[in-house]
Design goal:
With 217 residues, the protein is α+β, with helices and mostly antiparallel strands. The protein is built from six helices and ten strands; from the N terminus they run βααβββββαββββααα. A hairpin with a 5-residue loop joins strand 5 and strand 6.
Length: 217
């Protein structure tokens, strides 16, 4: 089992997000506060020249291309991911990245005694105490995979989860206008599609079955 957290800010850099503002506004810019179309450009952020500011002449409030979306402000919601190699993935959008937050999620989805591979982030410092085998790779030192038993196979890594994040990045890029409130729905749908491993009409059938289930997970 590979487990790793991802900050939504890491999905794409700020400059590229602002470059794609037409994907959000499409026909015209409108105020995210009062939805009025009477908008004027209001300069750029001094520390982020790519960040166009706007002013609404109806409510006199300012905003930019990120206001009201998941990319607004400086604190982006973390996404916590766990994936079984060759198996299913579990994704959760978290309020914070603390041990007390991830512990019940891990205990629900990972059987005690399982081997869990993570990066060096200190949030995973108590996994052995929680009843798991735990191995880490240290990305900050340039370590991404390690062969511990000398068989030539680098079995200690979180590459499975990292590869999954790459897929999620590609899928979310066209949806930069996703609100923070709806982000869990998008992430949950992507998790569902991965886990059922079906496409087209077969995917639709699985989706309907999940929706009508008594206690879908």
């Amino acid at each position: 089992m590979d487990t790793i957290r991802l900050n939504i800010h890491g999905l794409i850099d700020n400059a590229k997000c602002y470059e794609m503002s037409p994907l959000r506004w499409k026909d015209q810019v409108e105020c995210p506060h009062c939805h009025a179309p009477d908008i004027i450009k209001n300069g750029h952020d001094p520390t982020q020249p790519e960040r166009q500011r706007y002013l609404c002449r109806m409510c006199n409030r300012s905003f930019d291309d990120h206001t009201g979306t998941v990319f607004a402000g400086h604190h982006k919601p973390p996404i916590f991911g766990m994936i079984q190699r060759g198996g299913q993935v579990v994704l959760r959008v978290l309020e914070n990245v603390q041990q007390k937050t991830i512990k019940p999620i891990m205990e629900k989805f990972i059987k005690a005694g399982s081997l869990v591979n993570t990066d060096e982030y200190d949030i995973y410092g108590r996994l052995v105490e929680w009843g798991y085998e735990h191995k880490t790779v240290c990305h900050s030192r340039g370590e991404y995979a390690r062969d511990e038993d000398g068989d030539g196979f680098h079995e200690v890594h979180v590459n499975t989860m990292e590869g999954f994040w790459s897929l999620l990045r590609s899928w979310l890029r066209p949806h930069r206008g996703v609100s923070q409130e709806r982000l869990p729905l998008y992430v949950g749908f992507f998790q569902f599609v991965h886990n059922v491993r079906r496409r087209g009409k077969a995917l639709l059938r699985s989706l309907v079955e999940a929706l009508v289930a008594t206690n879908p997970e």
